[in-house]
Amino acid sequence: MLKLAVYGKGGIGKSTTTSNLAAAFSALGKRVIQIGCDPKADSTINLLGGQPLQPVMDYMREFDEEPDSIEQISKIGFGGVLCIETGGPTPGLGCAGRGIISTFALLDELDLFEEYRPDVVLYDVLGDVVCGGFAAPIREGYAEKVLIVTSGEKMALYAANNIKTAVDNFEDRGYASVGGIILNRRNVENEREKVEAFAEEHGLEIIADIPRSQDIIHYEDQGKTVIEGDPELEISKIYMDLAKRLLEADESAEN
User: Fold this and answer.
1) Interval 52-72 mean pLDDT
2) What is the pLDDT of the chain when averaged over all its residues?
3) 32-55, pLDDT tens digit by residue?
4) Residues pairing with 124 in the sheet
5) pLDDT score of 169
6) What are φ and ψ of residue 52, in 5° steps?
7) Cβ 121 vs Cβ 2: under 8 Å
8) 114, 148, 218, 232: which has the highest count of C-beta atoms within 10 A?
9) How far apart are CA 57 and CA 209, in angstroms?
């Protein structure tokens, strides 16, 4: 099973990246789960035709009890991707990270991975603060590789540095390691050079370079990934190539 956590600064394009990767993996014949780990709960919306999914934390508040089946807190999206959103506390009350911890404990109780038997699991995680519940995919063994999404913008690289530091702090415990950097371009000056310098400093590889694309915006307005909208687009092929590379790297690691 390929288990990936996608981290990055808020608004950097994690959800776009994660959902297009999920769609690409499914197009390659893989059984995929995507878990949104952000209080905004919008990670999976473009796999679900633009329709929001009720987050796990909202479900438990509404019904004042835990669900007794995965079906109550998930939906099947494009390509058969199983979509789940952790959600967060009532605004202004409680810690957002606890929503992730509570959801992960619940998914374990419901035997999600044993029942669904995915080939790929993707966690879409807010990376501005890598502590508490937001660090759970790294430290609790849920993910094996962390992909850092960044642009060449100063604050995006600052968040990327924090994420790398957090992963390094768990390194001696056998938890997740950084699998590479995804450059999600914002067309800032000398952007590739800035991200290359960051990657070299930290001994990391840029595993994908995603250009600014109006096609992404066009299909997101329709509640779709570009993989669903038009798999022949150049931007779609970039996501497909990345998915293939990640699968090949995982197979090589197992052999």
Assistant:
1) 92
2) 93
3) 999 999 888 899 999 999 999 999
4) 6, 36
5) 87
6) -70, 150
7) yes
8) 148
9) 35
Q: For residues 135 and 133, give the distance between their C-alpha atoms in angstroms, rounded to a whole number.
A: 5
Closest C-alpha among 96, 39, 56, 75 to residue 223: 75
Alpha helices in 96-139 (DSSP H): 96-109, 112-116, 136-139
CA distance 225 to 9: 21
Token pair, residue 248, equals 């090949």
Closest CA to 87 of 75, 68, 63, 103: 103
pLDDT interval class at 131 (50, 70, 90): confident
Say if strands 120-126 and 206-210 run parallel, antiparallel, or are unpaired: unpaired
Mean pLDDT of 56-74: 92
Of the candidate ranges 4-18, 53-67, 90-104, the one whose mean pLDDT is the lowest:
90-104
Q: Of 162, 159, 127, which Cα lies nearest the Cα of 143?
A: 127
Residue in this structure with the two tokens 């893989």, named with its chain if needed: 30
Task: Give the angle subtended at the CA of 156 by the CAs of 98 and 139, to the nearest 5°.
Answer: 35
**What amino acid positions are annotated as catalytic residues?**
9, 14, 40, 128
